[in-house]
C-alpha cells in the first residue's frame, strides 16, 4: 500500500514535472490544483492558503519537497516544511530540475530548501534527506525517482519515529 504523502513544490515553475512524479503512482498524494483553483484560494488570502495546506496535510505520513530552480524561496514551501516537521511527519526532498517540462526544457538546480531550517541546534538536514538523481537525461531521472521514491519515503518516516 502506497504511503500517503503531501507534495510541496513551486507550482509556476514545476507543475509539469510534479505531474510526472504524481503519475508514477508510487505514493498517494493530495490532489493537485489547477492554476485557476489555486488562484481562487490565493485570492482569499493567506489564512485560506494555510487552511488548504493544513486540511490536505492531515492524515499524511510524509512531506516530499520536489525541488526545482526556485522551490527553496517559495513562502508556502517554507510553511509546508515547518508544519510537516513540527507535526512529526517524515520530510524529504527530491531534485526534479532535470525532468523536462511541457516544452522539453530542463531547469537549473535549485537550493536545498532545508538549509534555512534548524530543530534546536540541529540542522533540519539531519531528518530531511535530499535526493539528487545521478542522471541528466530526463527519462533516466524519471526512472530513478520511480524506482526509489517509496523507499525514500519509508526512510524519512523511520527517521522521525
From TrEMBL:
Pfam families: ThsB_TIR (PF08937). Residues 6-101 form the Thoeris protein ThsB TIR-like domain. This is Thoeris protein ThsB TIR-like domain-containing protein. It comes from Rhizobium viscosum.
Amino acid at each position: 500500500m502506497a504511503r500517503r504523502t503531501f507534495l510541496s513544490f513551486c507550482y509556476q515553475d514545476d507543475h509539469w514535472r510534479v505531474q510526472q512524479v504524481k503519475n508514477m503512482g508510487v505514493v498517494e498524494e493530495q490532489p493537485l490544483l489547477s492554476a485557476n483553483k489555486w488562484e481562487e484560494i490565493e485570492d482569499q488570502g493567506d489564512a485560506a492558503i494555510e487552511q488548504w495546506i493544513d486540511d490536505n496535510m492531515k492524515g499524511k505520513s510524509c512531506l516530499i519537497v520536489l525541488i526545482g530552480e526556485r522551490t527553496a524561496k517559495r513562502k508556502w514551501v517554507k510553511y509546508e516544511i515547518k508544519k510537516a516537521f513540527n507535526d512529526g511527519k517524515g520530510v524529504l526532498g527530491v531534485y526534479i530540475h532535470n525532468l523536462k517540462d511541457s516544452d522539453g526544457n530542463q531547469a537549473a538546480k535549485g537550493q536545498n530548501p532545508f538549509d534555512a531550517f534548524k530543530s534546536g541546534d540541529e540542522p533540519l538536514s539531519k531528518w530531511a534527506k535530499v535526493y539528487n538523481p545521478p542522471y541528466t537525461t530526463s527519462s533516466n531521472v524519471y526512472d530513478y525517482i520511480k524506482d526509489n521514491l517509496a523507499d525514500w519515503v519509508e526512510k524519512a518516516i523511520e527517521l522521525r519515529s
